[in-house]
Amino acid sequence: MAGSILTNAVTHAILQRKWSPEQVTGRLRMDYPGDQQWHVSHETIYRFIYAHPAGERRRALIAALCQGHARRTPRTRGKDRRGPLRNIRSIRERPVEARDREIPGHFQLRLDQGPLFNV
């Protein structure tokens, strides 16, 4: 975050008013709608807090946060745990009867329609 005025405003809002970084971001956008210099994301504020060197100010800023964790773990999507699909056939490999839907069971079924759905 550039500028000591912005830094002081954010620090004051977090420490004195007990605002979250999301609240600080929203308030800055309301107070300075046309000034892009004051538009910072909550992620930028979190980085600002956790980038402080160890000391009393850092401890105070972290303690003022809702969670108050000494370390921040960024949210990730995680890895896909479903695993690969096995023994699947391409739709192009289906029998001719299924393509023409001549045999019962080879038709499309809409599960969100019909008498059971309206129960």
UniProtKB/TrEMBL annotation:
This is Integrase, catalytic region. It comes from mine drainage metagenome. One of its GO terms (biological process) is transposition. Residues 90-99 have a biased composition (Basic and acidic residues). Residues 69-99 are annotated as: Disordered. One of its GO terms (molecular function) is transposase activity. InterPro entries: Transposase-Integrase, Transposase_IS30-like. GO terms for cellular component: cytosol. Residues 69-80 have a biased composition (Basic residues).
